Amino acid sequence: MSSFITKARFSLFLCCLFLLAWHGLCADVVGTAVSAQRVATIDEFCEQHFESLPPGKGEEVLLEKVTAAFKDKFAAPAKTPLLREDDALMMAQQLMRRRAAEKYPIPEPAEQQRLAEEEFPLYQRGDRVRIIHKKNPFATTVSEGILYEAKNGIIKLANVSIRVRDMLGISGNEAEALKFDEKATQLRRELFIENMLAELSHSQTEWMLANQTAIENEAMQICAERNEAAGHTFVDGRWTSGYEFLERATLLAYNRLNSLQKVAMERALRLAEHSLEAQMQTVELSSKMAPPGSWISPAEELSRRAKAESDRLRAIAATKEAELKRQAEEKARLEAARLEKERLKRERLEAERLEAERARQALQASQVVETPPRSKTPLYAGIAVIVLLIVAGAVYFMRRGSKDEVDFSKFFEGKGRLQKEFWARVDANPDTFKYVAYLFPSMSDANNALSKLTYIDTSKDGNLSSKRQIYFGAYPHQEGAVCFVGGEKLNYALWREASAILPELPGATYFKVSTEPAVRLELPDMTAISEQGELQIKSLGVEDVISELGEFSRCYRYSTESKSTALAFLEKTAVGEEGVIIHVETPEGIFGKDLNGIFEM
User: Fold this and answer.
1) Do the strands 552-559 and 580-586 form a parallel or antiparallel pair, or are they unpaired?
2) Section 307-331 average pLDDT
3) Of 454, 489, 513, which residue constitutes the final position of a domain?
4) Cα–Cα distance, 284 to 444 (Å, whole number)
């Protein structure tokens, strides 16, 4: 068994050597970023002093300067010998063998034997066994007892002897029969160990084949890092150290800079030649084309063309400016004409109203009231008259009270009167009556714009209705239609939604929008709270938020250190309208308050 293990391990070792030797033909240890940084340092130093080098001895002088500047840093001899390709390949071999053994470990001989015995057990003398065997060719029986001996195909228990061949031929009984056969069991154990070792060795070989390139690169990298740590530097395909490194790096830098200088000089020479040739051609052509007695230089021609281009651009800019000015004046003229037309219309309507009022008063003054003679009235007739007067008075006061309530269903039945009443209400209460109005190309566009608001519903018949007690609607104006919402109950959230959504719709044009409504919210004095140290509350500002349904709300954001402080602060606040939210952020979560009370996000 040990000879098989030795052979497996030796074949694995030879496989590693063959793989590494074959791959090593093209392998090489190259420098890392450390070598590149060292070379870049020398190269940068050479660039700084290259222009000041004397001609003829530039290379020697540059090497002296580099040696003087870097002898203490790079000129020290290497501390350890250079690690080359064969060292890297040996290191890769060791890494592969160690990692393959860690990946697929081969058990020790004692562990191998234990695994084999566990896989193929063998009954020992003194074990209590239970044997299923043939009693005769036609019947089977079960015998139990203490094993005394199993030898030469005979199993002896305390009170019976059983032949091993009587256990065969019974389904599933072959493995049980082998537990009494020592030679067969031992042979199977050895075969099990050989197969296990062969599988592990094959797995290690496959793993090394799959990871060979990566481990070789790792070994090359490790060797390169160790070389650089010891003082070696990789320069232009060679490992150098000490003064050799300074000399080689300086030579490479000098050759590169010298080549660049030669290329630059040759280019400058070609440019000079081309410039001279161009000047000669210009002189020749100008003498042929210019009229007698005059000569046009190239500089004068270029100056003339530049001036003409500048004049052209100024003329274009002046034309654009004049056009913009003309458009602005035309727009201002049209606006002034519109305002004047509206003013005259208002004056005419006011004059007509005053004339009608004067006519009504004159008519009342000219009428003569005739008082009929008093007649005797029976008592029951007087009682009836009194009852009728009481009923008439009750109806009068009921109708008068109903006029004070807003009849929103009739607001759009008129063709202009109710719209005039709307703007009359705006003029009567400019501080409390808030509104938003925008002009659209047609009535359908205006009604469609109103339907975009969350608090305006559209029925199946296309009629609009409001969820809030506000004025809303649309009416023709000039060549379009104006849609509007407003009222004393138009709070900030409703006003903000209308002023944000309507102008973004297609064809919307600003008509008239009031200032934003005041928010009904009572907050404690933050300065007093901070000075007294009662609550540590920090304001994070105010922002408008939009819910998933598109409803707008004004959110007052604060932060504090605990949930209890947040709840105490919220208790001191009072929210007076819908669409107003207070958020207090804490490490335990966000707590808020609205018109319905305190809640947790």
Assistant:
1) parallel
2) 89
3) 513
4) 78
Mean pLDDT of 229-250: 85
Which DSSP helix (H) or strand (E) runs through 268?
helix 243-289
What mean pLDDT comes out for the span 64-73? 82
CA distance to 166, 175, 180, 547, 565, per residue, from 169 (Å): 8, 12, 16, 81, 86
Domain count, the chain: 3
pLDDT score at 372: 40
Q: Are residues 470 and 533 located together in one domain of the fold?
A: no
Strands (E), 39-160: 128-136, 139-151, 154-157
27 located within any domain: no
**Model confidence at 454: pLDDT above 60:** yes
Query: Within the chain, what is the greatest distance between any pair of CA atoms?
Result: 159
State the Cα–Cα distance between residues 366 and 132, nearest whole angstrom.
Answer: 141
For 173, 349, 477, the CA distances from 340, given in Å and listed in that order, are 118, 14, 16
Structure tokens at 374: 């008093």
Category of 557 on φ-ψ map: left (φ > 0), alpha (ψ -120 to 50) or beta: beta
Q: Which residue has the tokens 């009587």?
A: 166
Could you list the residue range(s) of the whole structural domain that residue 168 is in?
A: 124-179
Mean pLDDT of the chain: 80
Distance, in Å, from the CA atom of 191 to the CA atom of 204, rounded to the nearest integer, reads 20
Residue 575 located in a structural domain: yes
- List C-alpha distances in Å: 442 to 56, 439, 477, 482, 512: 91, 9, 9, 8, 17
487, 575: one domain: no
Higher pLDDT, 79 or 534: 79
Both 455 and 422 in a single domain?
yes
**Band (118; pLDDT cuts 50, 70, 90):** confident
- Assigned token pair, 581: 């939210």
Interacting residues of 192 by C-beta distance below 8 A, sequence separation 6+ = 115, 116, 119, 120
- Looking at the structure, tell me whether residues 531 and 485 fall in a common domain: no
Phi, psi for 455 (deg, rounded to 5): -100, 10
Joined together, the tokens standing for residue 383 give 């009682």
Say how far apart CA 28 and CA 224 lie, in whole Å.
10
CATH assignment at residue 453: 3.30.70
Contact indicator for 163, 151 with CB cutoff of 8 Å: no
Kindly state whether residues 532 and 498 are assigned to the same domain.
Answer: no
Which residue, among 244, 220, 231, has the nearest Cα to 35 in the 3D structure?
A: 231
Specify whether the CB–CB gap between 592 and 599 falls below 8 A: yes
pLDDT in tens, 506-524: 999 999 999 999 888 888 7
Residue 571 inside a domain? The answer is yes
Distance CA 442, CA 59 (A): 88
Residue 393 lies in a domain: no
Collapsing DSSP states into helix, strand and coil, what is residue 19?
helix
- The string of pLDDT tens digits covering residues 432-449 is 999 999 999 999 999 999
What span, in angstroms and rounded, lies between the C-alpha atoms of 104 and 204? 6
Question: Full-prediction pTM beyond 0.70?
Answer: no
Q: Are residues 546 and 496 in the same domain?
A: no
Indicate the residue among 179, 199, 221 that finishes a domain. 179
Most confidently modeled range among 243-252, 316-325, 359-368, 437-446: 437-446
Asked if residues 25 and 215 have their Cβ atoms less than 8 Å apart, the reply is: no
Q: Quote the pLDDT of residue 198.
A: 93
Q: Please name which of 36, 37, 65, 43 lies closest in space to residue 260, comparing C-alpha atoms.
A: 43
Strands (DSSP E) along 516-565, which ranges?
521-522, 538-546, 552-559
